[in-house]
Design a protein that fits this description.
Layout: H1 5-16, H2 22-27, E1 31-38, E2 42-43, H3 47-56, E3 60-63, E4 70-71, E5 78-86, H4 87-120, E6 126-128, H5 138-148, E7 161-163, H6 165-171, H7 174-185, E8 191-195, H8 198-207, E9 211-215, H9 219-232, E10 237-241, E11 259-261, E12 274-278
Length: about 290
């Protein structure tokens, strides 16, 4: 992760307590212990970020479940971590840590399901996410894709050149757009072009693009087109994207397709439910 990743997590805390924590004043600084419970089946993810939340607040965290493993709740809620520290800080960090775990684990869970579909079919390509991430939360979401076992795709606009339909329209042609991109990208940065048909893909590859995205192709058309492109451009990287779901993923598998990307891995995923329970000995429920 980037060297400044911890500062991003710290900013979440600063956003949540811009001035005074009134609830924290009520409970004070007495040291308490708490448990983090996983309440739904999923792949545990977000451990470094949740740990940072509590450690920044001076609390100690012990993880009981390894990140990246399935959590089985068939016999009840599972304690995934124990936290100890001043109770006001336990509660201050509670919601941010749980929100991170819930979304990260949701993404990792769907990603793992996609990875298992590919493994079962013995497909050798890469399942990948997209750049359709939540502003301010990209690092966590990209990390979660990796924990789930899929590719994070490009991290940002500086990671790779991707020329989409609007770039092509503005530049005037695929060849012109690729040529101009290469003039600044040099030899070290790959260029990908979004293509709607075989003719566009051939133009992009002939112009020097290393990757073409075959956008919104139906499975059978994708397989036929990718085979023809690989015959003519054997060293090209072919990506399929658009309309892919977990239910339809397997139908896109082809030995000629290298990458299948989909935002369903991280957009609109069902969050995994977590809660924090303070183990206070001084409170007896009536």
């Amino acid at each position: 992760m980037p060297p400044n990743w911890q500062h991003k997590i710290d900013e979440y805390l600063h956003e949540d307590v811009p001035s005074f924590d009134y609830g924290g004043f009520v409970v004070g600084d007495k040291v308490e212990k708490a448990e983090i419970l996983c309440k739904a089946r999923g792949v545990l993810c977000g451990v470094p970020f949740a740990r940072r939340v509590f450690e920044y607040l001076g609390c100690r965290v012990e993880w009981l479940v390894e990140e990246g493993l399935w959590v089985d709740v068939s016999k009840g809620n599972v304690v995934v971590a124990r936290v100890e520290g001043p109770v006001r800080f336990l509660l201050l960090g509670e919601r941010i840590a749980l929100n991170i775990l819930a979304r990260a684990s949701g993404i990792a869970t769907v990603s793992r399901m996609a990875r298992e579909i590919a493994d079962k079919a013995q497909w050798k390509g890469r399942v990948a996410g997209t750049r359709k991430t939540t502003p301010g939360f990209r690092l966590v979401e990209k990390y979660s894709l990796l924990v789930g076992g899929v590719d994070s795709h490009r991290n940002d606009l500086s990671s790779m050149v991707m020329l989409k339909d609007n770039h092509i329209a503005s530049a005037g042609s695929i060849t012109g757009a690729v040529t101009k991109a290469r003039s600044v990208a040099g030899f070290s940065i790959k260029i990908e072009v979004e293509c709607q048909n075989q003719q566009e893909a051939e133009e992009a590859l002939a112009a020097g693009a290393e990757i073409v995205m075959l956008d919104n192709f139906k499975p059978e058309a994708l397989k036929a087109t990718s085979q023809k492109l690989k015959e003519k451009f054997p060293h090209s990287i072919l990506e399929a994207s658009g309309g892919v779901t977990l239910d339809t993923l397997e139908s896109y598998f082809s030995p000629h397709v290298d990458v299948i990307s989909s935002s369903i891995l991280h957009q609109g995923v069902k969050h995994i439910d977590f809660s924090l329970n303070v183990l206070s000995s001084s409170y007896v429920k009536q």
